[in-house]
Amino acid sequence: MKEYNIEVLKDAAKRLLFDMSESEYETLLKEFDIVTKQMDIIGSDKSIDEYEPMSFPFECTTSYLREDIPEEPLSREDALRNSKRKIGGQIKLPKVVQ
Amino acid sequence: MYEGKSILELHELLVSKKVTPLELAKDAIELAKKDTNNAFEYIMESEAIEIASKLTEPEANNLLWGIPFVIKDNMSTKDVPTTASSNILNGYVPVYDAAVVEKLKNAKAVPIGKTTLDELAMGGTGTSGHLGMTYNPYDESKTRLVGGSSCGSAAVTAAGIVPFALGSDTGDSTRKPASFAGLVGFKPTWSRISRYGLFPFAPSLDTIGIFSRNVTDAAIVTEVLAGRDDRDSTSSTEPVGKYFEEITKPCNKKNIAIVKEIRDAVKDKEVLDAFNKTVEELKKHGYKINEVSMPNDVLASLFPTYFVLSCAEATSNNANMDGIKFGPLSNGSTFEEVMSEARTKGFGELIKRRFVIGSFALMKENKHDLFIRAQKNRRRIVDCVNAILKDNDFIYLPAAPSIAPKATDSSDRLSDEYLIADNHLVLGNFAGLPSITLPIGFKERMPFGANLMARAFEETSLFQVSYELEQITGLANIYAKGGRK
Fold first, then answer.
1. Measured between CB atoms, does A36 come within 8 Å of chain B?
2. In this predicted structure, what is the pLDDT of residue A67?
3. ipTM beyond 0.85?
4. Domain range for B235
5. Which residue of B126, B142, B170, B172 has the fewest CB atoms within a 10 Å radius of its CB?
6. Domain containing residue A28
7. How far apart (Å, rounded) are the C-alpha atoms in residues A93 and A43?
Protein backbone atom coordinates (compact mmCIF):
# COMPACT_ATOMS: atom_id res chain seq x y z
CA MET A 1 0.00 0.00 0.00
CA LYS A 2 1.20 3.47 -0.86
CA GLU A 3 2.68 5.46 2.04
CA TYR A 4 0.49 8.37 3.05
CA ASN A 5 1.56 11.80 4.20
CA ILE A 6 0.27 15.33 3.82
CA GLU A 7 1.67 15.61 0.28
CA VAL A 8 -0.04 12.40 -0.87
CA LEU A 9 -3.33 13.58 0.62
CA LYS A 10 -2.98 17.01 -1.01
CA ASP A 11 -2.31 15.35 -4.34
CA ALA A 12 -5.40 13.14 -3.91
CA ALA A 13 -7.53 16.20 -3.09
CA LYS A 14 -6.13 18.06 -6.09
CA ARG A 15 -7.05 15.17 -8.36
CA LEU A 16 -10.54 15.24 -6.86
CA LEU A 17 -10.69 18.93 -7.81
CA PHE A 18 -10.98 20.50 -4.39
CA ASP A 19 -8.71 21.94 -1.74
CA MET A 20 -8.73 21.95 2.05
CA SER A 21 -7.14 24.12 4.70
CA GLU A 22 -3.91 23.07 6.43
CA SER A 23 -5.83 22.22 9.62
CA GLU A 24 -8.25 20.09 7.61
CA TYR A 25 -5.33 18.16 6.13
CA GLU A 26 -3.96 17.63 9.65
CA THR A 27 -7.33 16.23 10.76
CA LEU A 28 -7.42 14.00 7.68
CA LEU A 29 -3.92 12.72 8.43
CA LYS A 30 -5.02 11.77 11.97
CA GLU A 31 -8.09 10.07 10.53
CA PHE A 32 -5.86 8.10 8.17
CA ASP A 33 -3.91 6.82 11.18
CA ILE A 34 -7.11 5.37 12.67
CA VAL A 35 -8.48 4.17 9.35
CA THR A 36 -5.27 2.34 8.46
CA LYS A 37 -5.25 0.62 11.87
CA GLN A 38 -8.82 -0.48 11.17
CA MET A 39 -7.77 -1.61 7.67
CA ASP A 40 -5.06 -3.76 9.23
CA ILE A 41 -7.88 -5.94 10.57
CA ILE A 42 -8.66 -6.85 6.95
CA GLY A 43 -5.06 -6.75 5.77
CA SER A 44 -3.69 -9.15 8.36
CA ASP A 45 -6.04 -12.02 7.45
CA LYS A 46 -4.71 -13.80 4.39
CA SER A 47 -7.70 -16.18 4.20
CA ILE A 48 -9.70 -13.28 2.72
CA ASP A 49 -7.89 -13.82 -0.56
CA GLU A 50 -9.80 -17.07 -1.03
CA TYR A 51 -13.05 -15.15 -1.54
CA GLU A 52 -14.38 -13.65 -4.76
CA PRO A 53 -14.88 -9.87 -4.60
CA MET A 54 -18.52 -8.98 -3.97
CA SER A 55 -19.89 -5.98 -5.85
CA PHE A 56 -23.61 -6.36 -5.10
CA PRO A 57 -25.53 -8.30 -2.44
CA PHE A 58 -27.03 -10.66 -5.01
CA GLU A 59 -27.67 -11.02 -8.72
CA CYS A 60 -30.45 -8.80 -9.91
CA THR A 61 -30.41 -8.97 -13.66
CA THR A 62 -32.63 -6.93 -15.90
CA SER A 63 -33.55 -8.19 -19.35
CA TYR A 64 -36.58 -6.59 -20.90
CA LEU A 65 -37.40 -4.74 -24.07
CA ARG A 66 -38.92 -1.37 -23.52
CA GLU A 67 -42.11 -0.71 -25.47
CA ASP A 68 -41.46 1.76 -28.28
CA ILE A 69 -43.82 4.42 -26.98
CA PRO A 70 -43.05 8.03 -27.85
CA GLU A 71 -42.62 10.16 -24.75
CA GLU A 72 -42.39 13.89 -24.21
CA PRO A 73 -38.73 14.69 -23.52
CA LEU A 74 -37.65 17.25 -20.94
CA SER A 75 -38.67 20.68 -22.18
CA ARG A 76 -35.97 23.21 -23.01
CA GLU A 77 -37.32 25.45 -20.28
CA ASP A 78 -36.98 22.69 -17.66
CA ALA A 79 -33.55 21.66 -18.92
CA LEU A 80 -32.25 25.22 -18.55
CA ARG A 81 -34.02 26.01 -15.30
CA ASN A 82 -31.16 25.11 -12.95
CA SER A 83 -28.54 26.90 -15.00
CA LYS A 84 -27.51 30.39 -13.88
CA ARG A 85 -25.77 31.29 -17.13
CA LYS A 86 -27.56 30.74 -20.43
CA ILE A 87 -27.36 32.36 -23.84
CA GLY A 88 -29.73 31.78 -26.75
CA GLY A 89 -31.40 28.77 -25.17
CA GLN A 90 -28.07 27.12 -24.33
CA ILE A 91 -26.04 26.71 -21.14
CA LYS A 92 -22.85 28.81 -21.15
CA LEU A 93 -19.82 26.84 -19.99
CA PRO A 94 -16.18 27.77 -19.48
CA LYS A 95 -13.85 27.21 -22.41
CA VAL A 96 -12.64 23.59 -22.48
CA VAL A 97 -10.15 23.76 -25.39
CA GLN A 98 -7.60 26.57 -24.97
CA MET B 1 -54.16 18.70 17.33
CA TYR B 2 -53.45 15.59 15.25
CA GLU B 3 -49.85 15.15 16.33
CA GLY B 4 -48.68 11.69 17.29
CA LYS B 5 -51.46 9.87 15.47
CA SER B 6 -50.75 6.79 13.37
CA ILE B 7 -51.67 6.25 9.72
CA LEU B 8 -54.60 4.03 10.72
CA GLU B 9 -55.89 6.55 13.29
CA LEU B 10 -55.68 9.41 10.79
CA HIS B 11 -57.29 7.24 8.09
CA GLU B 12 -60.23 6.58 10.38
CA LEU B 13 -60.64 10.32 11.01
CA LEU B 14 -60.36 11.10 7.30
CA VAL B 15 -62.89 8.55 6.01
CA SER B 16 -65.38 9.50 8.73
CA LYS B 17 -64.88 13.14 7.60
CA LYS B 18 -63.90 14.26 11.09
CA VAL B 19 -60.91 15.93 9.47
CA THR B 20 -59.97 16.81 5.90
CA PRO B 21 -56.57 16.31 4.22
CA LEU B 22 -56.25 20.09 4.05
CA GLU B 23 -56.79 20.47 7.81
CA LEU B 24 -54.28 17.68 8.47
CA ALA B 25 -51.71 19.25 6.16
CA LYS B 26 -52.14 22.69 7.74
CA ASP B 27 -51.86 21.19 11.22
CA ALA B 28 -48.63 19.37 10.31
CA ILE B 29 -47.23 22.52 8.66
CA GLU B 30 -47.95 24.59 11.77
CA LEU B 31 -46.12 21.99 13.89
CA ALA B 32 -43.26 21.99 11.37
CA LYS B 33 -42.93 25.77 11.65
CA LYS B 34 -42.56 25.41 15.42
CA ASP B 35 -39.82 22.78 15.10
CA THR B 36 -36.72 23.60 17.14
CA ASN B 37 -34.85 20.39 16.30
CA ASN B 38 -33.39 21.83 13.07
CA ALA B 39 -35.12 19.03 11.17
CA PHE B 40 -36.37 20.82 8.07
CA GLU B 41 -34.53 21.87 4.94
CA TYR B 42 -37.73 23.15 3.40
CA ILE B 43 -41.36 23.24 4.50
CA MET B 44 -43.58 22.52 1.50
CA GLU B 45 -46.40 24.80 2.63
CA SER B 46 -47.85 25.96 -0.69
CA GLU B 47 -47.19 22.61 -2.36
CA ALA B 48 -48.88 20.61 0.41
CA ILE B 49 -51.88 22.93 0.53
CA GLU B 50 -52.30 22.66 -3.25
CA ILE B 51 -52.19 18.84 -3.13
CA ALA B 52 -54.39 18.51 -0.04
CA SER B 53 -57.00 20.97 -1.39
CA LYS B 54 -57.70 18.63 -4.28
CA LEU B 55 -58.45 15.68 -1.99
CA THR B 56 -62.15 16.02 -1.33
CA GLU B 57 -63.65 12.53 -1.61
CA PRO B 58 -62.29 10.12 1.02
CA GLU B 59 -61.01 6.78 -0.26
CA ALA B 60 -61.86 4.13 2.33
CA ASN B 61 -59.65 1.51 0.68
CA ASN B 62 -56.61 3.75 0.37
CA LEU B 63 -54.86 3.98 3.73
CA LEU B 64 -52.49 6.72 2.59
CA TRP B 65 -55.20 9.05 1.24
CA GLY B 66 -54.59 12.48 2.73
CA ILE B 67 -51.83 11.33 5.10
CA PRO B 68 -49.01 13.87 5.60
CA PHE B 69 -45.39 12.77 5.39
CA VAL B 70 -41.86 14.17 5.00
CA ILE B 71 -39.01 13.32 2.63
CA LYS B 72 -35.29 13.12 3.32
CA ASP B 73 -33.67 15.82 1.23
CA ASN B 74 -31.56 13.42 -0.84
CA MET B 75 -34.56 12.45 -2.94
CA SER B 76 -35.64 14.37 -6.01
CA THR B 77 -38.84 16.35 -5.65
CA LYS B 78 -40.21 18.07 -8.74
CA ASP B 79 -40.22 21.87 -8.38
CA VAL B 80 -39.08 21.64 -4.74
CA PRO B 81 -35.52 22.59 -3.67
CA THR B 82 -33.37 19.54 -2.96
CA THR B 83 -29.95 20.07 -1.41
CA ALA B 84 -28.96 16.78 0.26
CA SER B 85 -27.92 19.18 3.07
CA SER B 86 -24.90 20.19 1.00
CA ASN B 87 -23.97 23.75 0.01
CA ILE B 88 -22.99 22.50 -3.43
CA LEU B 89 -26.67 21.88 -4.18
CA ASN B 90 -28.04 25.13 -2.73
CA GLY B 91 -30.75 26.38 -5.07
CA TYR B 92 -31.04 23.13 -7.04
CA VAL B 93 -34.64 22.40 -8.02
CA PRO B 94 -35.18 18.95 -9.59
CA VAL B 95 -37.39 18.56 -12.62
CA TYR B 96 -38.74 15.15 -11.61
CA ASP B 97 -39.94 13.20 -8.57
CA ALA B 98 -38.07 10.21 -7.16
CA ALA B 99 -40.00 6.95 -7.71
CA VAL B 100 -40.93 6.73 -4.02
CA VAL B 101 -42.21 10.31 -3.96
CA GLU B 102 -44.18 9.70 -7.14
CA LYS B 103 -45.73 6.52 -5.67
CA LEU B 104 -46.76 8.27 -2.47
CA LYS B 105 -48.21 11.20 -4.39
CA ASN B 106 -50.11 8.75 -6.62
CA ALA B 107 -51.44 7.16 -3.43
CA LYS B 108 -52.62 10.69 -2.53
CA ALA B 109 -50.40 11.06 0.53
CA VAL B 110 -49.39 14.69 1.14
CA PRO B 111 -45.69 15.67 1.37
CA ILE B 112 -45.25 18.56 3.80
CA GLY B 113 -41.47 18.99 3.89
CA LYS B 114 -37.92 18.05 3.04
CA THR B 115 -35.75 17.03 5.97
CA THR B 116 -32.13 17.48 7.00
CA LEU B 117 -29.44 14.84 6.71
CA ASP B 118 -25.73 14.37 7.17
CA GLU B 119 -24.28 15.99 4.06
CA LEU B 120 -25.00 13.79 1.03
CA ALA B 121 -26.15 11.06 3.47
CA MET B 122 -22.55 10.39 4.52
CA GLY B 123 -22.31 10.21 8.30
CA GLY B 124 -24.12 8.70 11.22
CA THR B 125 -24.47 11.60 13.63
CA GLY B 126 -26.85 14.11 12.09
CA THR B 127 -24.30 16.88 12.63
CA SER B 128 -22.59 17.34 9.25
CA GLY B 129 -25.40 18.82 7.14
CA HIS B 130 -25.04 22.42 5.97
CA LEU B 131 -27.65 23.62 8.50
CA GLY B 132 -25.73 22.12 11.44
CA MET B 133 -26.76 19.57 14.04
CA THR B 134 -30.28 18.11 14.10
CA TYR B 135 -31.43 17.54 17.68
CA ASN B 136 -33.08 14.59 19.33
CA PRO B 137 -36.69 15.55 20.18
CA TYR B 138 -36.50 13.47 23.38
CA ASP B 139 -33.64 15.57 24.72
CA GLU B 140 -34.75 19.01 25.84
CA SER B 141 -31.17 20.02 26.66
CA LYS B 142 -30.38 19.80 22.93
CA THR B 143 -27.12 18.04 23.55
CA ARG B 144 -27.92 14.55 22.30
CA LEU B 145 -27.76 13.34 18.73
CA VAL B 146 -30.75 11.92 16.93
CA GLY B 147 -28.33 10.00 14.74
CA GLY B 148 -27.91 9.99 11.01
CA SER B 149 -27.80 10.22 8.26
CA SER B 150 -31.61 10.44 8.12
CA CYS B 151 -31.64 12.80 11.12
CA GLY B 152 -34.41 15.18 10.04
CA SER B 153 -36.87 12.46 9.04
CA ALA B 154 -36.25 10.71 12.38
CA ALA B 155 -36.69 13.95 14.38
CA VAL B 156 -39.91 14.95 12.58
CA THR B 157 -41.49 11.51 13.08
CA ALA B 158 -40.31 11.27 16.70
CA ALA B 159 -41.82 14.70 17.40
CA GLY B 160 -45.18 13.39 16.19
CA ILE B 161 -45.49 15.91 13.34
CA VAL B 162 -46.23 13.25 10.69
CA PRO B 163 -46.94 9.52 11.04
CA PHE B 164 -44.22 8.43 8.64
CA ALA B 165 -41.15 9.69 6.82
CA LEU B 166 -38.86 8.64 4.00
CA GLY B 167 -35.19 8.07 4.80
CA SER B 168 -32.37 6.18 3.17
CA ASP B 169 -30.06 3.50 4.55
CA THR B 170 -26.53 2.73 3.37
CA GLY B 171 -24.94 1.51 6.63
CA ASP B 172 -27.67 1.99 9.25
CA SER B 173 -28.92 5.49 8.42
CA THR B 174 -32.57 4.68 9.13
CA ARG B 175 -32.27 1.92 11.73
CA LYS B 176 -29.76 3.60 14.09
CA PRO B 177 -31.65 6.95 14.32
CA ALA B 178 -34.81 4.89 14.91
CA SER B 179 -33.13 3.39 17.98
CA PHE B 180 -32.13 6.83 19.29
CA ALA B 181 -35.56 8.35 18.62
CA GLY B 182 -37.98 5.63 19.79
CA LEU B 183 -39.13 4.84 16.26
CA VAL B 184 -39.67 1.95 13.92
CA GLY B 185 -36.96 2.20 11.25
CA PHE B 186 -37.21 -0.16 8.34
CA LYS B 187 -34.76 -1.01 5.57
CA PRO B 188 -36.17 -3.33 2.88
CA THR B 189 -34.33 -6.00 0.93
CA TRP B 190 -31.83 -4.34 -1.45
CA SER B 191 -33.67 -3.91 -4.80
CA ARG B 192 -37.14 -4.23 -3.20
CA ILE B 193 -37.92 -0.49 -3.55
CA SER B 194 -36.87 1.59 -6.56
CA ARG B 195 -34.03 4.02 -5.96
CA TYR B 196 -34.81 6.12 -9.03
CA GLY B 197 -34.35 9.72 -7.89
CA LEU B 198 -32.46 8.85 -4.68
CA PHE B 199 -29.08 10.58 -4.77
CA PRO B 200 -26.60 7.69 -4.84
CA PHE B 201 -24.11 7.37 -1.99
CA ALA B 202 -22.93 3.75 -2.35
CA PRO B 203 -25.38 1.99 -4.69
CA SER B 204 -24.21 -1.52 -3.78
CA LEU B 205 -25.50 -0.79 -0.24
CA ASP B 206 -28.13 1.97 -0.61
CA THR B 207 -31.83 1.40 0.04
CA ILE B 208 -34.81 3.62 0.72
CA GLY B 209 -35.73 3.64 4.43
CA ILE B 210 -39.02 4.20 6.24
CA PHE B 211 -39.64 5.74 9.67
CA SER B 212 -42.93 5.29 11.52
CA ARG B 213 -44.16 5.03 15.10
CA ASN B 214 -45.50 1.50 14.78
CA VAL B 215 -44.76 -1.60 12.73
CA THR B 216 -48.14 -1.65 10.96
CA ASP B 217 -47.57 1.81 9.48
CA ALA B 218 -44.16 0.71 8.18
CA ALA B 219 -45.82 -2.30 6.51
CA ILE B 220 -48.50 -0.10 4.92
CA VAL B 221 -45.94 2.27 3.41
CA THR B 222 -43.60 -0.51 2.28
CA GLU B 223 -46.42 -2.24 0.42
CA VAL B 224 -47.10 0.94 -1.55
CA LEU B 225 -43.43 1.59 -2.33
CA ALA B 226 -42.23 -1.94 -3.18
CA GLY B 227 -42.09 -3.37 -6.68
CA ARG B 228 -40.27 -3.31 -9.97
CA ASP B 229 -39.48 0.03 -11.60
CA ASP B 230 -37.95 -0.07 -15.08
CA ARG B 231 -36.19 3.24 -14.35
CA ASP B 232 -34.06 1.47 -11.72
CA SER B 233 -32.43 -1.51 -13.41
CA THR B 234 -31.50 -2.96 -10.01
CA SER B 235 -35.10 -3.06 -8.80
CA SER B 236 -36.49 -6.55 -8.33
CA THR B 237 -39.32 -8.33 -10.13
CA GLU B 238 -40.06 -10.48 -7.04
CA PRO B 239 -43.79 -10.30 -6.23
CA VAL B 240 -44.70 -7.84 -3.46
CA GLY B 241 -46.26 -9.40 -0.34
CA LYS B 242 -49.47 -8.35 1.39
CA TYR B 243 -47.50 -6.89 4.27
CA PHE B 244 -50.39 -5.00 5.88
CA GLU B 245 -53.09 -7.65 5.46
CA GLU B 246 -50.88 -10.39 6.87
CA ILE B 247 -49.18 -8.51 9.67
CA THR B 248 -51.50 -9.70 12.45
CA LYS B 249 -51.34 -13.34 11.35
CA PRO B 250 -49.10 -15.48 13.58
CA CYS B 251 -45.59 -15.76 12.20
CA ASN B 252 -44.94 -19.38 11.21
CA LYS B 253 -41.19 -18.86 11.21
CA LYS B 254 -39.99 -19.37 14.75
CA ASN B 255 -36.18 -19.61 14.81
CA ILE B 256 -34.40 -16.52 16.05
CA ALA B 257 -30.61 -16.26 16.21
CA ILE B 258 -28.72 -14.02 18.62
CA VAL B 259 -25.12 -13.41 17.66
CA LYS B 260 -23.36 -13.81 21.00
CA GLU B 261 -20.29 -11.69 20.18
CA ILE B 262 -22.40 -8.72 19.04
CA ARG B 263 -24.70 -8.86 22.06
CA ASP B 264 -21.69 -9.19 24.37
CA ALA B 265 -20.04 -6.14 22.83
CA VAL B 266 -22.93 -4.08 24.25
CA LYS B 267 -21.88 -2.96 27.73
CA ASP B 268 -24.88 -0.87 28.79
CA LYS B 269 -26.71 -2.84 31.52
CA GLU B 270 -30.13 -1.25 30.97
CA VAL B 271 -29.99 -1.92 27.22
CA LEU B 272 -28.94 -5.53 27.81
CA ASP B 273 -31.56 -6.10 30.52
CA ALA B 274 -34.36 -4.78 28.32
CA PHE B 275 -33.11 -6.83 25.39
CA ASN B 276 -32.88 -10.02 27.46
CA LYS B 277 -36.38 -9.41 28.79
CA THR B 278 -37.77 -9.29 25.23
CA VAL B 279 -35.89 -12.51 24.45
CA GLU B 280 -37.62 -14.26 27.34
CA GLU B 281 -40.99 -12.94 26.18
CA LEU B 282 -40.36 -14.10 22.61
CA LYS B 283 -39.67 -17.58 24.00
CA LYS B 284 -43.05 -17.48 25.74
CA HIS B 285 -44.61 -16.60 22.37
CA GLY B 286 -43.25 -19.84 20.92
CA TYR B 287 -40.03 -18.56 19.36
CA LYS B 288 -36.92 -20.71 19.61
CA ILE B 289 -33.89 -18.60 20.50
CA ASN B 290 -30.55 -19.90 19.27
CA GLU B 291 -27.27 -18.38 20.41
CA VAL B 292 -24.90 -18.40 17.45
CA SER B 293 -21.35 -17.24 16.91
CA MET B 294 -19.54 -15.11 14.36
CA PRO B 295 -15.73 -14.92 14.38
CA ASN B 296 -14.51 -11.81 16.22
CA ASP B 297 -12.11 -10.90 13.42
CA VAL B 298 -15.00 -10.93 10.92
CA LEU B 299 -17.07 -8.70 13.20
CA ALA B 300 -14.19 -6.32 13.86
CA SER B 301 -13.80 -5.95 10.09
CA LEU B 302 -17.39 -4.75 9.51
CA PHE B 303 -16.72 -1.05 9.90
CA PRO B 304 -13.41 -0.84 7.98
CA THR B 305 -14.94 -2.85 5.13
CA TYR B 306 -17.94 -0.56 5.04
CA PHE B 307 -15.77 2.52 5.23
CA VAL B 308 -13.54 1.53 2.31
CA LEU B 309 -16.40 0.40 0.07
CA SER B 310 -18.76 3.28 0.83
CA CYS B 311 -16.09 5.99 0.54
CA ALA B 312 -14.83 4.53 -2.74
CA GLU B 313 -18.32 4.31 -4.23
CA ALA B 314 -19.18 7.80 -2.96
CA THR B 315 -16.06 9.35 -4.51
CA SER B 316 -17.11 8.09 -7.88
CA ASN B 317 -20.86 8.76 -7.54
CA ASN B 318 -20.42 12.37 -6.52
CA ALA B 319 -18.02 13.27 -9.31
CA ASN B 320 -20.95 14.89 -11.14
CA MET B 321 -21.14 17.63 -8.52
CA ASP B 322 -18.60 19.78 -10.25
CA GLY B 323 -20.23 23.17 -10.66
CA ILE B 324 -21.08 22.37 -14.27
CA LYS B 325 -23.40 19.35 -14.28
CA PHE B 326 -24.60 20.06 -10.72
CA GLY B 327 -23.69 22.87 -8.36
CA PRO B 328 -23.05 26.59 -8.75
CA LEU B 329 -21.16 27.69 -11.86
CA SER B 330 -18.19 29.51 -10.35
CA ASN B 331 -15.77 31.99 -11.84
CA GLY B 332 -12.64 30.64 -13.49
CA SER B 333 -10.91 30.71 -16.83
CA THR B 334 -10.64 26.93 -17.25
CA PHE B 335 -13.05 24.14 -16.47
CA GLU B 336 -10.63 22.81 -13.81
CA GLU B 337 -10.70 26.19 -12.03
CA VAL B 338 -14.49 26.30 -12.23
CA MET B 339 -14.87 22.77 -10.85
CA SER B 340 -12.25 23.23 -8.15
CA GLU B 341 -13.87 26.46 -6.95
CA ALA B 342 -17.33 24.88 -6.83
CA ARG B 343 -16.18 21.72 -5.03
CA THR B 344 -13.86 23.48 -2.57
CA LYS B 345 -16.61 25.88 -1.48
CA GLY B 346 -19.51 23.45 -1.90
CA PHE B 347 -18.43 20.40 0.09
CA GLY B 348 -18.07 20.28 3.87
CA GLU B 349 -14.90 19.05 5.57
CA LEU B 350 -16.17 15.57 6.45
CA ILE B 351 -17.27 14.91 2.87
CA LYS B 352 -13.90 15.98 1.50
CA ARG B 353 -12.12 13.68 3.94
CA ARG B 354 -14.29 10.76 2.88
CA PHE B 355 -13.68 11.48 -0.78
CA VAL B 356 -9.91 11.51 -0.22
CA ILE B 357 -10.11 8.21 1.68
CA GLY B 358 -12.23 6.71 -1.11
CA SER B 359 -9.88 8.01 -3.75
CA PHE B 360 -6.87 6.65 -1.83
CA ALA B 361 -8.52 3.21 -1.72
CA LEU B 362 -9.01 3.31 -5.49
CA MET B 363 -5.46 4.42 -6.37
CA LYS B 364 -3.66 1.96 -8.61
CA GLU B 365 -1.10 1.20 -5.87
CA ASN B 366 -3.80 0.59 -3.22
CA LYS B 367 -6.75 -0.84 -5.09
CA HIS B 368 -5.88 -4.47 -4.45
CA ASP B 369 -4.88 -4.00 -0.80
CA LEU B 370 -7.85 -1.85 0.10
CA PHE B 371 -10.81 -1.83 -2.30
CA ILE B 372 -10.60 -5.38 -3.70
CA ARG B 373 -9.78 -6.85 -0.27
CA ALA B 374 -12.79 -5.02 1.19
CA GLN B 375 -14.97 -6.50 -1.57
CA LYS B 376 -13.59 -9.97 -0.79
CA ASN B 377 -14.14 -9.46 2.91
CA ARG B 378 -17.69 -8.37 2.20
CA ARG B 379 -18.33 -11.79 0.68
CA ARG B 380 -16.76 -13.47 3.73
CA ILE B 381 -19.06 -11.47 6.01
CA VAL B 382 -22.13 -12.22 3.89
CA ASP B 383 -21.30 -15.93 3.83
CA CYS B 384 -21.27 -15.88 7.66
CA VAL B 385 -24.65 -14.11 7.82
CA ASN B 386 -26.24 -16.42 5.26
CA ALA B 387 -24.90 -19.47 7.14
CA ILE B 388 -26.74 -18.23 10.27
CA LEU B 389 -29.92 -17.62 8.28
CA LYS B 390 -29.78 -21.11 6.79
CA ASP B 391 -30.89 -22.55 10.13
CA ASN B 392 -32.58 -19.45 11.54
CA ASP B 393 -35.37 -17.23 10.26
CA PHE B 394 -34.27 -14.02 11.95
CA ILE B 395 -31.28 -12.41 13.64
CA TYR B 396 -32.21 -10.37 16.73
CA LEU B 397 -29.86 -7.91 18.47
CA PRO B 398 -29.70 -4.59 20.32
CA ALA B 399 -29.75 -1.93 17.59
CA ALA B 400 -27.13 0.27 19.26
CA PRO B 401 -24.85 0.00 22.30
CA SER B 402 -26.56 2.83 24.20
CA ILE B 403 -29.11 5.60 24.15
CA ALA B 404 -28.38 8.54 21.85
CA PRO B 405 -24.91 9.86 22.69
CA LYS B 406 -24.16 13.51 23.33
CA ALA B 407 -22.64 15.46 20.45
CA THR B 408 -19.53 16.00 22.57
CA ASP B 409 -19.09 12.29 23.44
CA SER B 410 -16.17 10.55 21.78
CA SER B 411 -15.60 6.84 21.34
CA ASP B 412 -12.55 4.67 20.92
CA ARG B 413 -12.80 3.81 17.25
CA LEU B 414 -10.70 0.70 17.69
CA SER B 415 -12.77 -0.81 20.52
CA ASP B 416 -15.22 -3.72 20.16
CA GLU B 417 -17.99 -1.47 21.38
CA TYR B 418 -17.40 0.86 18.42
CA LEU B 419 -16.36 -1.64 15.74
CA ILE B 420 -19.00 -4.27 16.60
CA ALA B 421 -21.84 -3.04 18.83
CA ASP B 422 -22.06 0.37 17.15
CA ASN B 423 -21.75 -0.82 13.56
CA HIS B 424 -23.25 -4.31 13.23
CA LEU B 425 -26.42 -3.10 11.48
CA VAL B 426 -24.33 -2.81 8.30
CA LEU B 427 -24.63 -6.61 8.04
CA GLY B 428 -28.07 -5.97 6.53
CA ASN B 429 -26.57 -3.69 3.86
CA PHE B 430 -23.69 -6.03 2.99
CA ALA B 431 -26.08 -8.95 2.52
CA GLY B 432 -28.98 -6.84 1.17
CA LEU B 433 -31.35 -8.16 3.84
CA PRO B 434 -34.55 -6.59 5.20
CA SER B 435 -33.97 -5.19 8.67
CA ILE B 436 -36.13 -3.34 11.17
CA THR B 437 -35.45 -1.46 14.41
CA LEU B 438 -38.16 -0.89 17.01
CA PRO B 439 -38.11 0.59 20.52
CA ILE B 440 -37.69 -1.76 23.49
CA GLY B 441 -37.00 0.56 26.42
CA PHE B 442 -35.99 3.90 27.96
CA LYS B 443 -33.01 5.02 30.00
CA GLU B 444 -32.68 8.54 31.40
CA ARG B 445 -35.93 9.31 29.51
CA MET B 446 -34.20 8.50 26.24
CA PRO B 447 -35.42 5.58 24.08
CA PHE B 448 -33.36 2.69 22.73
CA GLY B 449 -34.21 -0.10 20.32
CA ALA B 450 -33.55 -3.61 19.07
CA ASN B 451 -33.21 -4.87 15.54
CA LEU B 452 -34.55 -7.85 13.63
CA MET B 453 -33.16 -8.99 10.30
CA ALA B 454 -34.59 -11.63 7.93
CA ARG B 455 -33.68 -13.41 4.70
CA ALA B 456 -33.92 -11.48 1.44
CA PHE B 457 -37.52 -10.77 0.35
CA GLU B 458 -39.00 -12.19 3.56
CA GLU B 459 -40.52 -8.85 4.56
CA THR B 460 -43.90 -10.43 5.36
CA SER B 461 -42.59 -12.63 8.18
CA LEU B 462 -40.25 -9.86 9.36
CA PHE B 463 -43.23 -7.51 9.83
CA GLN B 464 -45.17 -10.30 11.58
CA VAL B 465 -42.49 -11.07 14.17
CA SER B 466 -41.87 -7.32 14.66
CA TYR B 467 -45.58 -6.79 15.23
CA GLU B 468 -45.53 -9.50 17.91
CA LEU B 469 -42.48 -7.92 19.51
CA GLU B 470 -44.27 -4.57 19.51
CA GLN B 471 -47.20 -6.16 21.38
CA ILE B 472 -44.67 -7.48 23.93
CA THR B 473 -42.96 -4.14 24.53
CA GLY B 474 -46.12 -2.04 24.32
CA LEU B 475 -44.00 0.74 22.82
CA ALA B 476 -46.02 1.50 19.71
CA ASN B 477 -46.99 5.10 18.87
CA ILE B 478 -44.67 6.82 21.33
CA TYR B 479 -43.45 10.31 20.52
CA ALA B 480 -41.65 13.24 22.12
CA LYS B 481 -43.58 16.39 22.82
CA GLY B 482 -40.54 18.58 23.27
CA GLY B 483 -38.74 20.57 20.62
CA ARG B 484 -41.42 23.14 19.74
CA LYS B 485 -41.31 26.91 19.85
1. no
2. 86
3. yes
4. 13-256+392-473
5. B142
6. 19-43
7. 45
